[in-house]
């Protein structure tokens, strides 16, 4: 009886370190630090780094739903990013529709693209699925480059830099930082809810053993299709926010393999298949990348990439399960209260 009471009290207590489906003190502390960084008066260059860290953390979480939870390792997520960015921008510049509406239209179209891709390619395995996602993104990029009447072609699209709430263009970077943090919290809440839900357990079962999951009554094709659609929709929202911050879309960047690799790299460094992993990966890699480029990019061309790559190798060698895996090791070594 006493053991049952102890277990119940332990389950109700907020854990110190992240656990699946539960909010921990570590996550609350991270949120408090992020809020403090948004409202603090720091230099504009560092503000750029912070808000990009928030944006890419949200994008990495979105990728992790497909790659980490459903086992769909995609190197074509920049296509969903570009679809979201172009949709909200075209609706704004050509039809005067506010990005507050366009952002959801972009998410819906990106979700449709994701669902179709998953239904067509989800039966492929390993490198074959990865190559199919790369090819899909390349097709979307070629369309964006050649459909100049709609997308602006190689010249891209620009958003008029006129501050307005309805146009989602702000003079203050603090407002953008708050917007990016809101996006990160939104995607994180969806991820935490997903991993604690029955559907989340279906995804884990499909990822770990598709045949066993199918024998237990789980539909792998439907599960993966929904995961890819959700992941694509959240990536499309991130693309719209990117467009509203930079006010310019270059198809060679927003639909590029480099961007897709970055979406996958952040969860790999932070910890695949965990909610906190992509956030830790972005908070480590994005500032490191931006600061090295700023301070070493002009003085010694290429040196920042060498240091960046060396840091990644160190992380992957000593933390093969990512930073989240290191936290789990630390948690297991802590004495049970």
Question: Percent of residues in beta strands?
Answer: under 5%
Global outline? globular
Distance between the termini: 18 Å
Number of helices: 16
Radius of gyration: 20 Å
Low-confidence stretches at least 5 residues in length (pLDDT < 50)? none
Element string (H = helix, E = strand): HHHHHHHEHHHHEHHHHH
Biggest β-sheet description = 2 strands, antiparallel
**Sequence of strands across the biggest β-sheet:** 1-2
- What oligomeric state do these chains adopt? single chain
The helix content is over 70%
What's the mean pLDDT score? 87
Topology:
Elements: H1 2-12, H2 25-39, H3 44-69, H4 77-95, H5 99-121, H6 126-146, H7 148-151, E1 157-158, H8 173-195, H9 198-208, H10 210-215, H11 220-246, E2 248-249, H12 251-254, H13 257-270, H14 276-296, H15 303-318, H16 322-333
Please, could you describe this protein's structure?
This protein has 337 residues and is an all-alpha fold. It is 75% helix and 1% strand. It has 16 helices and two strands. It has a two-stranded antiparallel sheet. The longest helix has 27 residues, at 220-246. It is globular, with a radius of gyration of 20 Å. The model has no long low-confidence stretch (mean pLDDT 87).
Concise overview:
With 337 residues, the protein is mostly helical.
């Amino acid at each position: 009886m006493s053991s049952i009471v102890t277990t119940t009290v332990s389950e109700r207590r907020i854990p110190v370190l992240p656990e699946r489906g539960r909010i921990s003190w570590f996550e609350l502390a991270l949120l408090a630090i992020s809020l403090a960084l948004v409202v603090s008066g720091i230099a504009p260059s560092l503000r750029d780094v912070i808000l990009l860290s928030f944006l890419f953390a949200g994008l990495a979480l979105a990728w992790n739903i497909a790659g980490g939870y459903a086992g769909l390792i995609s190197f074509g997520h920049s296509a969903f990013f570009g679809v979201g960015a172009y949709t909200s921008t075209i609706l704004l510049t050509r039809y005067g529709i506010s990005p507050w509406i366009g952002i959801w239209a972009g998410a819906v179209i990106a979700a449709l693209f994701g669902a179709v891709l998953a239904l067509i390619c989800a039966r492929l395995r390993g490198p074959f699925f990865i190559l199919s996602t790369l090819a899909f993104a390349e097709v979307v990029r070629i369309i964006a480059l050649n459909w100049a009447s709609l997308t602006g072609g190689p010249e891209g699209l620009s958003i008029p830099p006129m501050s307005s709430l309805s146009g989602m263009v702000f003079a203050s970077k603090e407002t953008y930082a708050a917007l990016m943090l809101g996006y990160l919290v939104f995607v994180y809440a969806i991820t935490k809810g997903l991993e604690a839900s029955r559907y989340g357990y279906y995804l884990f079962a499909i990822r770990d053993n598709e045949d066993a999951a199918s024998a237990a009554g789980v539909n792998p094709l439907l599960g993966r299709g929904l995961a890819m659609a959700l992941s694509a929709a959240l990536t499309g929202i991130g693309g719209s926010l990117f467009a509203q911050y930079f006010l310019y879309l270059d198809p060679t960047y927003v639909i590029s393999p480099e961007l897709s690799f970055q979406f996958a790299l952040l969860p790999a460094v932070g910890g695949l298949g965990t909610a906190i992993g992509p956030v830790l990966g972005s908070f480590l890699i994005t500032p490191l990348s931006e600061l090295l480029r700023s301070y070493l990019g002009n003085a010694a061309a290429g040196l920042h990439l060498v240091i960046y790559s060396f840091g990644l190798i160190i992380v992957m060698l000593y933390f093969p399960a990512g930073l989240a895996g290191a936290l789990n090791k630390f948690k297991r070594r802590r004495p049970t209260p």
